[in-house]
Amino acid sequence: MKNIRNFCIIAHIDHGKSTLADRLLETTGTVVGKDLQAQVLDDMELERERGITIKSHAIQMDYNYKGEKYVLNLIDTPGHVDFSYEVSRSIAACEGALLIVDATQGIQAQTISNLYLAIDNNLEIIPVLNKMDMPNAMPEEVKDQIEELIGCDRDDIIEASGKTGLGVDKILEAVVERIPAPTGDPDAPLQALVFDSEFNSFRGIITYCRIMNGSLKKGDIVKFVSTGKEYDADEIGVLRLEQEPRNELKTGDVGYIISGIKTSSEVKVGDTITHVECPCTTAIEGFKEVKPMVFAGIYPIDSEDYEDLRSSIEKLQLNDASLTFEPESSAALGFGFRCGFLGMLHMEIVQERLDREFNMNVITTVPNVMYIAHTTKGEVFEMHNPSDMPAPTVLDYIEEPYIKAQIITPTDYIGQIMTLCLGKRGVLIKQHYLTGNRIELNYEMPLAEIVFDFYDKLKSITKGYASFDYFQIGYRRANLVKLDILLNGESVDALSALIHFDNAYSFGKRICEKLKELIPRQQFDIAIQAAIGAKIISRETIKAVRKDVTAKCYGGDISRKRKLLEKQKKGKKRMKQIGNVEVPQKAFLAVLKLD
């Protein structure tokens, strides 16, 4: 056990975690020859396309140091705020963390929030300054920032480059010397923490776990504490580039277990695995339940695919524990699911994965957040959907969730950021200079305002330099109204939204204009209206496609033309009564990207 080291790599997005992980795997000889490609651990097609890590990836390496063989279990984690739950689970399976900071960018918001996660779990932190080969690297300035943040010695910061391989040997030495070996009792009853799982159509569910106490042998009868179900450990092993079967996993090991489980609800991330004959007395404390920040409805395009969609989401949830869902129905779209996501990128990735991995083509409704409604009778209930809103006669007031936002930016962009936050109903709480030209701004603002495009706008006005992190601080009373979108007088519930009274008019006008561009013309006029209750606040009309019925009349009396036009008008009127308007999927998506 003294020769095992479990560590993860944490950093802000794009600071070079996965590239550095490649160099570690190459130096230790874990990956050789044709397997060596950029971002080896990002094995999902989507991760390679976008150049981001979505899942945390565990891999085992062997390293010889001073004549002794060490086993290093490395977990590469995502850097985007939407995947912070992956990071928190990886940290729970480790004793140490490499904190990577980009020498050209300096410390950014996610660096700080991931660092606090690691410190809360008492991890040994090894600071690494990456991208030292870049001509615009600022090592001395960034080292000052790291010293101020962690309070470490300047000599403890390792200079490295994932591209050239500079400093990789020093990192491996530091991992062996500074990170403590796992603590645990090899003779105690088995306790293993489930930190991830995935569905394999041939083998059933593959569970990834970290052995905290005791040991696990192939063929043992084990049980999952929270469900109480018992299984046979058909195959156990460690995670190399491929899964490598072993006969025994000991205390401190990170590995996998396959026991032929077919139902996804039987495996919960954060659960404890123990032996049936000699069970442990207490379960390991799992992870905090994740709180979804954004809610949206996901509906199958064809209502017959409802059950397939359910099983697809369940299988996806195994691999992405931060996704939550419950059934719901809508008048316009039929049966579907109300899903909770950690952010807009997370929502986009889930939709994309459903399409690629399960061939599920889905419609996603306008995302919103959870509100709390108070009625005049004193009842309190949650609203996930604008259609849950009680009638105005019984509604007393609505509360909406507020967040505390932390924005770190170069000082040149303070003005634009303040204008953006004010437009989003933000209130400046404090500002604090980290260094001469970097400032941290703390705002309190409604979560609903940052759901759509806040992050994108922040990145574009600051040329990508500002970084942003947030956490929820509770609910506050707000003046919200329900905005309905009507097509020919029929309400489209998938497009309705709860919105602040001050923004309702401009938002309704923009939606009407956008829908006018996107809905194809029909044989009859289509009226697009935005309404608050019975009051119409905006209207656009899509003119009918019409045949030129007067083309054959040349010369002669005007009444002949008028007669033909009247006849056409009657036909159009009849069509309008029986015609219905299809809203294309891109119209739903365009509403999310309203500028």
Question: What does this entry look like structurally?
Answer:
With 595 residues, the chain is α+β, with helices and mostly antiparallel strands. The chain has five domains: 175 residues, P-loop containing nucleotide triphosphate hydrolases (Rossmann fold, 3-Layer(aba) Sandwich), CATH 3.40.50; 85 residues, Elongation Factor Tu (Ef-tu), domain 3 (Beta Barrel); 74 residues, Alpha-Beta Plaits (2-Layer Sandwich), CATH 3.30.70; 107 residues, Alpha-Beta Plaits (2-Layer Sandwich), CATH 3.30.70; 111 residues, 2-Layer Sandwich (Alpha-Beta Plaits), CATH 3.30.70. The protein is built from 14 helices and 31 strands. The strands form six sheets. Strands 11-10-16-7-8-15-12-13 form an eight-stranded antiparallel sheet. A six-stranded mixed sheet has the order 2-3-1-4-5-6, sandwiched between helices. The longest helix is centred in the last third of the chain and has 21 residues. The radius of gyration is 28 Å and the shape is globular. It starts with a strand and ends with a helix.
